Amino acid sequence: MNILILGSGGREHSLAWAVLQNPKCDKLIVAPGNAGIAAIADCASFDINDGAAVVGFVDENNIDFVIIGPEAPLAAGVGDDLRAAGVLVFGPSKAAAALEASKAFTKEICDAANAPTAAYGHFTDADAARAYLADHPAPIVIKADGLAAGKGVIIAETDAEALAAVDTMFDGTFGDAGAEVVIEEFMDGEEASFFVLCDGDTVLPIGTAQDHKRVGDGDTGPNTGGMGAYSPAPVLTDEIAERALAEIIRPTMAEMAKRGTPYQGVLYAGLMIKDGAPRLVEYNARFGDPECQVLMMRLGAQAFDLMHAAAEGRLNEARVNWADDHAVTVVMAAQGYPGSYDKGSVIKGLDALPEDSRNMVFHAGTAKKDGAITAIGGRVLNVTARGDTLAEAQARAYEMVEAIDWPGGFYRRDIGWRALS
Ligand code: AMP
Ligand code: GLY
């Protein structure tokens, strides 16, 4: 098959790496890709959020199957445009991707599906939001309704912070994403990510992971897109995973189907776990980044068969071949991230590192300039290793990190700490 992957992050590098291991892949193109992806596949440049441009590229290049990595093309309806053109695609429709694109929609679906989640109010004007806060003291969580690149969530520790957050949301800081606001009960507990594939009907769990959202060691400092991940996440025991499927995920998928907007693709459920019970924090309509990197490292070539089965509606006959292993990915980011950072610093030492089924450096914000790998983004490398134990995978990942010569970068030194402590 000729396969096209849309995206340019470490997530897409790991998807490309897994797809290329599968003998069913004859040709792989990634758009737009990055320097690491360009080393293993062809890269193409066009607007991946423009459905007509994607359909045009698919026609010209005889693409049989499209895998959509990031949320933006999903929310723009690129999946719908491809399906309308008769192209096989992995990724939800625009209507189904609303599970990520609108927090108010997700809360309403959870109500309909009776899925445990935080109590909430939904507001389109600041006065009503302030009135709600008067009855709901801090700690409390204020969220912009729409996609805000992970920045639209404010956890207010005091009532004054909560009021200030409401003002920020409605003053246009988050653009259209903040025109509607969800205010939510603060849930404490331990967070973990649960990944399932869905073909509109069957739900197939494919793994658990835990991200590290804060920039600093010990989960300190501002939030980021994710500074590292490991899989599996032991806090998500088989029993809790079963409960999450039975109480949250299957009822949500059934409700989506009932409404005539069945969900097809990967569903990433962010769960808060407390006293053995899971509650939903959020859904994402795509793989997590960097969680995808550890999942792909563990699944390998079968990841392609599973995504293909989801796209063709055959998940009822699919099986996941679990290995009893662990994977860790450490994000190397540009100094200054998640604030402003310099671009163009040179990264050395990558060539000496092994690239095999247990060790991979997935690239995120990299480009090749004058023969050198340079940093062009905030999150730049995802140094990923597999081991028989989490400790072994962690030690191996950090060994590789230390072999990379990049003075312009930094990383967290404690990826995996919750599971290891
Ligand atoms: P979201 O964009 O909804 O994933 O929120 C980003 C992060 O904020 C989550 O991963 C949680 O760490 C935190 N968060 C969101 N909602 C809540 C909540 N109701 N209670 C506690 N933490 C939350
Ligand atoms: N790593 C968090 C996310 O992809 O949303």
Automatic annotation (TrEMBL):
Q: What class of enzyme is it?
A: ligase
Q: Which UniProt keywords apply?
A: ATP-binding, Ligase, Nucleotide-binding, Purine biosynthesis
What biological processes does GO assign it?
'de novo' IMP biosynthetic process; purine nucleobase biosynthetic process
GO molecular function terms noted in the UniProt entry: ATP binding; metal ion binding; phosphoribosylamine-glycine ligase activity
Give the residue ranges for region: Disordered: 209-229
Q: Which residues form the ATP-grasp domain?
A: 107-312
Pathway membership, UniProt:
Purine metabolism; IMP biosynthesis via de novo pathway; N(1)-(5-phospho-D-ribosyl)glycinamide from 5-phospho-alpha-D-ribose 1-diphosphate: step 2/2
Q: Which cofactor does it need?
A: Mg(2+); Mn(2+)
**E.C. numbers:** 6.3.4.13
Coiled coil: which residue ranges? Answer: none
SMART domains reported for this sequence: GARS_A (SM01209), GARS_C (SM01210)
Q: Which reaction does it catalyse?
A: 5-phospho-beta-D-ribosylamine + glycine + ATP = N(1)-(5-phospho-beta-D-ribosyl)glycinamide + ADP + phosphate + H(+)
Mind telling me which Pfam families this protein's record contains?
A: GARS_A, GARS_C, GARS_N
Family, per entry: Belongs to the GARS family.
Annotated protein name in UniProt: Phosphoribosylamine--glycine ligase
Query: Which species?
Result: Sulfitobacter pontiacus
What taxonomic lineage is listed for the species of origin? Bacteria, Pseudomonadati, Pseudomonadota, Alphaproteobacteria, Rhodobacterales
